[in-house]
Design goal:
alpha/beta, 8-stranded mixed sheet, 18 strands, binds flavin-adenine dinucleotide
């Protein structure tokens, strides 16, 4: 049997791609190496655009409303509320199980296994024992298929631009309905309310930082957390910046983090990945996966530009000026947040 769309990687973007495929009347199989409900280091903020994309797929995961973004630096603070839209803080476990059950109910087939290679043919593509007309590699930041398809960039990322993320949850009622971004000397801390008694704390910074040590450098956060108990084990990811040369190789394409990633500083990974999943399936439906390349550039352009600029600033000697500058020109901050909200 030849399936229409083989998705490698059953993270949120792979599941979204499989759902998109079924909604377009195509058969879809997902191969995922991990069993059960999948967790991952993530800030877990579904920005309004990501929440709308998830709703479009017929999925409404439980979580806590996100009404804006607040930047804090020592005792300074600036905040912008999303206008007329809302995001949601959603635990990855909740997002995964909601997307997976929607995919199952639409008839997506699931195979457990790790894909190490891919065979590209003129009419079909095969991986993990499944033959398909098209393959979407949604295997995340360190995508094996990006390398196997010859789409990985050999450009080295300067060490100071290599950023890593660590996250842990704490058991307490959230004190905020916005994503708080606390700017420290070395790291930023992202606070996301994700449940009635769960707050997510994600830290982004240079290689090798210690979660507890860095967290202790944010007195506002430690005060707010009080003696709340950790509610998850520490998880990490990185380096975040990953580059691909192109997104399409014959009947295969890269989607989501696998297609290249800049940074989590704007919390847009899920929105951008969902948009790519939609574009890739639209290209397949239109009969020319090659057109996904141009659409991918369009879907990711602003994300790549803005995120890259923020990371360059955040990893430069100008880092301490970031929040004061935004405070001096709050209109710019407002525009950035409104853009992130889309
Ligand atoms: C610290 C941090 C904070 C973040 N905060 C936010 C945020 O607040 N909001 C937001 O929108 N985004 C955020 N992001 C980004 C977001 O987590 C990613 O963009 C998103 O998870 C990408 O989804 P994906 O499905 O492409 O990849 P993943 O979620 O990584 O899924 C890939 C899947 O592929 C599977 N897989 C890998 N290799 C293979 C293989 N060889 N064979 C079979 N299966 C395989 C993996 O097991 C995994 O399930 C953050 C990221 C980090 C690191």
């Amino acid at each position: 049997v030849t399936v229409d769309v083989l998705v490698v990687g059953g993270g949120p973007v792979g599941l979204a791609a499989a759902i998109e495929a079924r909604l377009a009347g195509l058969s879809a199989t997902v191969i995922e190496r991990r069993a059960g409900v999948i967790d991952k280091a993530c800030g877990e903020g579904l920005m309004p655009g990501a929440l709308a994309a998830v709703h479009r797929l017929g999925v409404d995961p439980p979580g806590r409303p996100l009404r804006g973004i607040r930047y804090l630096d020592g005792e300074r603070m600036l905040e912008h509320r999303f206008s007329g839209v809302e995001g949601r803080g959603v635990r990855r476990l909740a997002l995964h199980s909601a997307l997976a059950s929607r995919a199952r109910s639409l008839g997506v087939a699931f195979v457990e296994g790790r894909v190490d290679d891919v065979a590209l043919g003129a009419e079909t593509v095969a991986a993990g024992g499944v033959t398909a007309r098209h393959l979407l590699a949604c295997d995340g930041l360190h995508s094996t298929l990006r390398r196997r398809l010859g789409l990985e960039s050999s450009r080295a990322i300067p060490v100071k631009r290599r950023r890593y993320g660590l996250r842990r949850h704490f058991a307490l009622e959230p004190w905020t309905d916005v994503v708080e971004v606390h700017f420290g000397a070395r790291t930023e801390a992202y606070i996301t309310p994700v449940g009635d008694d769960t707050v997510g704390v994600a830290l982004l910074g240079p290689q090798g930082f210690d979660f507890d040590e860095e967290l202790a450098s944010f007195p506002r956060i430690t005060r707010a957390l009080g003696d709340a108990a950790p509610a998850s084990t520490l998880r990490g990811a990185g380096p975040l910046r990953q580059l691909s040369t192109r997104r399409v190789a014959g009947r295969a394409a890269l989607v989501g983090d696998a297609s290249g990633y800049t940074d989590a500083i704007t919390g847009e990974g899920l929105r951008v990945g969902m948009a790519q999943a939609r574009s890739a399936i639209a290209a397949i439906v239109a009969g020319d996966l090659g057109t996904y390349e141009r659409q991918w550039r369009c879907d990711t352009r602003e994300f790549r530009l803005l995120t890259n600029q923020l990371v360059v600033l955040a990893t430069s000697p100008l880092r301490p000026l970031l929040v004061p500058t935004m405070l001096a020109v709050p209109g710019v901050f407002g525009r950035i947040v409104d853009r992130i909200a889309r």
